[in-house]
Amino acid sequence: MNNLKLNNIINKYLNTKNIKDNSVNGIQIEGKKNVKNILTCVSINNYIINKAIFYKIDTIITHHGILWHNNLPNIIGIKKKRIYKILINNINIFSWHLPLDIHPEIGNNVIIANKLNIKIIQLPNNNFPVLIGKINTKKKIYQLIKKNKNINFLKSKKKKIKKIGICSGLGEKYLEKTILKYNIDTYITGEILEQSFYVIKEYDINIIIMKHYISEIYGVKKLGEWIKKNFSLKVKFLNTFDIYENSFYKKERKK
Ligand SMILES: [Zn+2]
């Protein structure tokens, strides 16, 4: 499949042109014209690029790409090293960020809601990327917390888990807005910053922190499956959670 044609098809499916985002969504670096072998990942990094070269991958599709509107535009440091390797190996880099968080079928938030048996009240959108939902049974949520030791759960003193806001990745920005606008009792997100712990305590809500990486595996993986099914291309997802993010936490725990 032609690389620019694939880019157009995915942009259309993910509604890229109507979504305002910090990420440069769609094709970021042009490589081989003919796409045959795709590697999907949550974040571009040196390990991913080396693996792509080793496995003769022609296209990388990532949730967190190389080019961001608010980043330093200079091609220096690790950005230079990555781009150099990508160009001499003629690899396409595609990235879809917010379009893969808020998509109504394969978005991170919708998939998290489905996995946890959360009934959707309001889908996330370009202006408000938080999914609002409610549950009848907490069973799936408690199973998830129990099964995955990377997930943190801070329980409210008084509020039961009923009305939920889901925001994959750094859900910081929308935490208080979601509490005030939708009167949620529970917030599910990837990560939060220090100041959010006071917001959580003072509004006394439940919070489930999945880790940024884990909350954003779903969308890009599903996009890969969608491409595989519709265009018969080879697609493989590579998980680097244990090599990067999780290895830092492990080292901290050992000290
Ligand atoms: Zn993210």
Strand-helix topology:
Layout: H1 3-14, E1 26-29, E2 37-43, H2 46-54, E3 59-64, H3 77-88, E4 92-95, H4 98-102, H5 108-115, E5 119-122, E6 131-134, H6 139-147, E7 152-154, E8 163-170, H7 175-182, E9 186-191, H8 196-203, E10 206-209, H9 212-215, H10 217-231, E11 234-237, H11 245-254
Parallel strand pairs: 2-3, 2-11, 3-4, 8-9, 9-10
Antiparallel strand pairs: 1-4, 5-6, 6-8, 7-10
Bound molecules: zinc ion (ZN).
Zinc ion (ZN) binds next to loops.
Characterization of the model:
- The structure is a single chain.
- With 255 residues, the chain is α/β, with parallel strands linked by helices.
- Helices cover 39% and strands 21% of the residues.
- The chain has eleven helices and eleven strands.
- The protein has helices at 3-14, 46-54, 77-88, 98-102, 108-115, 139-147, 175-182, 196-203, 212-215, 217-231, 245-254, and strands spanning 26-29, 37-43, 59-64, 92-95, 119-122, 131-134, 152-154, 163-170, 186-191, 206-209, 234-237.
- The protein has a six-stranded mixed β-sheet with strand order 5-6-8-9-10-7, sandwiched between helices.
- The site of zinc ion (ZN) has 4 residues, from loops.
